């Protein structure tokens, strides 16, 4: 059995590009092997900043290709078509055979059995697979035509201990591996994967990213144990750093304790976001003045340590200066400066937005029964920290800094918290604002954003969503659902439209309200799928939901999903299906509501009474509706529908009685559909 190795050696590739390229190559080569029915034992995908390696072991030298028939054009077509088919398969017209099949007589060609060398197949397909890598950013260098994430310098390709020859643009594959260190280039002929890994390790290059990660984590844990630190670090930062270094060495450094007086988020952001260092916490999860640096070589002379400490000290010194300067600036007075920050050309400035959000917050506060004045104050200052030097330096801290500024200036804690939390959530599973002032400002901020971009027709497309409107919509729905809020979204949307109109914003979409409600319903699908709600239930509920109470919609889905395979759900569906099967066939004969005067049996009267009883329950205010009890009531109708169908002939000779009974069944089905559209539920 043979080994296959492919290494792409380049200038340093950024972590994300590197990971994507590695995984893409691995997937595409696996797909190739599977398509060609080439068996293998193992596949390995490794990468470090300058090289990507994909390796297979247990490959055969040859594969056998079975004989097969390939269907061609139909007999009787023009000779040009037949010749084209023959030429495309590199055979003579005379080698085609005629064969009758179900759809007529066709030309066929029969391929012969053959053996192919795996190395030849690989040599032929590798340029195509390498070219298929999609780079978010790519570059062209020298006089070469190749576009690549970073300049590609060499290709190492080996099959069964021998060079696998092929060309890719200006490069030809080699059986030697190149190492550049300390301005010196050397290469070595390699025979197998074990030798490849050993050669690189000798030159202080660990190509296996998993091994590099284990080394880093072990060092973290050793230091943490010795110093009584909490074993805590960012998994995202770790993945990034792992793919920046080739020979990881962990350094434990510190900064001046005086900087611990400034908000911890500034320090963490300085270390993680700006320097790719790891902040360290004590066992009580308090930030310490220590941090980890992952260097790419050993710090024998302490130059790396001293250099990194100087960088951190300088950045924290600047941050402290900005903090002292910015926290004294009155947040209310800062609002006017938001006029200088454009949100988007067609919808005005950040100041314009805060004015709309303030009024929307007032409307929502009445519905949520929270202090209107406080809500409007919170809305007014929620963007004020965007004017600060700190947020200019650390844009990822918008909102967070606003919270600290507000607290230092004597604002109440719930108002201050709303400044930082109104940006939440930032993803499908990220934390939510849980306090009334926080989630109320978050709701109106997101509605204002959605309405604004829909008004100017800057809606998401299937492939693009530059303003993250899907994220805003999902965040809005998550807040409503998880905080159990029954709010009138449509009223907020229409008020937001009016506020844009008052500010003189030019409308490009007159259907904003309708389209936005539909957009939210579609985003609800995603949320429900993540909750593992059955697809037919989602479709049944979404298609029948004509209001704007999304908590109501969510509750129905959860309940139906809970009961659909249980006795309650089975009975409800069975009862509905039996009635709808008859009612749906007689749509033209059904004109209106049933007339009690035309009832001739007790079964008709009882079923009518039960329907009205349930319909009355549907008329209660949504906030007071007991959907679980409603569903149970729907299921309990089965005994009455069974009695009806067992003892009542729907197709009575008297046309009026017949139509009246059909109208009764239609009324019965419509009552069920007030819950969700039962016709779209699969029978169970």
Structure keywords:
5 domains, 684 residues, single chain, 3-stranded antiparallel sheet, alpha+beta, 25 helices, Alpha-Beta Plaits
Structure write-up:
The chain folds into 5 domains: 2-63 and 117-202, Alpha-Beta Plaits (2-Layer Sandwich), CATH 3.30.70; 67-112, no CATH class; 209-326, no CATH class; 336-383 and 412-530, no CATH class; 556-680, Isoleucyl-tRNA Synthetase, Domain 1 (Orthogonal Bundle). The chain is built from 25 helices and 19 strands. The strands form 7 sheets. A 5-stranded antiparallel beta sheet has the order 2-3-1-9-10, with helices on one face. Strand 16 (278-281) and strand 17 (287-295) form a beta hairpin. Helix 11 (372-381) packs across helix 14 (413-421), helix 16 crosses helix 18 and helix 18 (512-530) runs antiparallel to helix 19. The protein starts with a strand and ends in an 11-residue tail after the last helix. 33% of the residues are buried.
């Amino acid at each position: 059995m043979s080994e296959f190795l492919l290494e792409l050696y380049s200038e340093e590739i950024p972590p994300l590009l590197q990971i994507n390229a590695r995984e893409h190559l691995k997937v595409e080569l696996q797909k190739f092997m599977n398509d060609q029915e080439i068996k293998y034992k193992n596949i390995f995908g490794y990468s470090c900043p300058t090289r990507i390696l994909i390796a297979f072991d247990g490959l055969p030298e040859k594969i056998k290709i079975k004989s097969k028939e390939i269907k061609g054009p139909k007999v009787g077509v023009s000779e040009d078509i037949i010749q084209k088919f023959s030429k495309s398969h590199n055979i003579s017209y005379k080698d085609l055979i005629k064969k009758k099949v179900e759809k007529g007589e066709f030309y066929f060609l029969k391929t012969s059995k053959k053996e192919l060398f795996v190395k030849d197949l690989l040599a032929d397909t590798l340029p195509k697979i390498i070219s298929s890598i999609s780079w978010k950013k790519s570059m062209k260098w020298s006089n070469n035509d190749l576009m690549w994430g970073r300049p590609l310098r060499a290709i190492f390709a080996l099959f069964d201990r021998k060079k696998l020859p092929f060309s890719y643009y200006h490069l030809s594959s080699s059986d030697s591996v190149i190492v550049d260190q300390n301005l010196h280039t050397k290469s070595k002929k390699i025979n197998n994967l074990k030798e490849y890994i050993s050669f690189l390790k000798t030159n202080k290059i660990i190509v296996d990213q998993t091994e590099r990660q284990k080394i880093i984590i072990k060092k973290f844990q050793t230091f943490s144990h010795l110093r009584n630190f909490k074993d805590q670090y960012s998994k995202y930062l770790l993945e990034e750093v792992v793919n920046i270094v080739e020979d990881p060495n962990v350094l434990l450094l510190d900064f001046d304790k005086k900087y611990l007086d400034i908000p911890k988020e500034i320090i963490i952001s300085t270390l993680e976001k700006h320097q790719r260092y790891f902040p360290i916490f004590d066992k009580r999860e308090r930030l310490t003045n220590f941090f980890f640096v992952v260097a790419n070589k050993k710090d024998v002379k302490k130059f790396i340590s001293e250099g990194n400490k100087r960088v951190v000290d300088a950045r924290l010194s600047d941050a402290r200066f900005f903090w002292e300067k910015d926290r004294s600036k009155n947040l209310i007075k800062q609002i006017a400066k938001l006029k200088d920050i454009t949100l988007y050309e067609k919808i005005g400035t950040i100041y314009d937005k805060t004015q709309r959000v303030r009024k929307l917050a007032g409307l929502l506060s009445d519905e949520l029964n929270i202090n209107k004045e406080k809500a409007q104050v919170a809305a007014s200052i929620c963007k004020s920290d965007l004017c600060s030097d700190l947020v200019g330096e650390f844009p990822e801290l918008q909102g967070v800094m606003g919270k600290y500024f507000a607290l230092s200036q004597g604002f109440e804690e719930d108002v201050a918290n709303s400044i930082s939390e109104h940006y939440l959530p930032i993803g499908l599973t990220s934390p939510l604002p849980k306090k009334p002032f926080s989630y109320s400002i978050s709701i109106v901020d997101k509605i204002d954003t959605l309405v604004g971009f829909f008004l100017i027709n800057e809606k998401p497309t299937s492939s693009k969503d530059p303003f993250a409107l899907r994220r805003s919509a999902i965040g809005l729905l998550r807040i409503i659902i998880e905080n159990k809020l029954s709010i009138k979204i449509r009223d907020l949307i229409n008020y937001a439209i009016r506020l844009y109109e008052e500010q003189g914003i030019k409308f490009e979409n007159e259907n904003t309200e309708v389209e936005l409600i539909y957009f939210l319903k579609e985003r609800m699908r995603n949320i429900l799928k993540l909750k593992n709600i059955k697809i037919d239930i989602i479709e049944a509920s979404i298609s029948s939901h004509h209001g704007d109470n999304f908590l109501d919609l969510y509750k129905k889905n959860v309940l139906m999903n809970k009961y659909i395979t249980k006795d309650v759900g089975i009975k409800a569906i069975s009862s509905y299906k039996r009635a709808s099967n008859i009612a749906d066939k007689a749509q033209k004969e059904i004109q209106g509501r049933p007339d009690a005067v035309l009832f001739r049996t007790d079964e008709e009267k009882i079923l009518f009474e039960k329907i009205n009883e349930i319909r009355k329950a549907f008329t209660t205010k949504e906030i007071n509706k007991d959907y679980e009890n409603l569903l149970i009531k729907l299921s309990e109708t089965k005994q009455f529908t069974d009695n009806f169908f067992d003892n009542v002939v729907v197709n009575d000779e008297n046309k009026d009685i017949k139509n009246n009974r059909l109208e009764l069944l239609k009324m019965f089905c419509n009552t069920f559909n007030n819950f969700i559209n039962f016709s779209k539920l699969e029978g169970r």
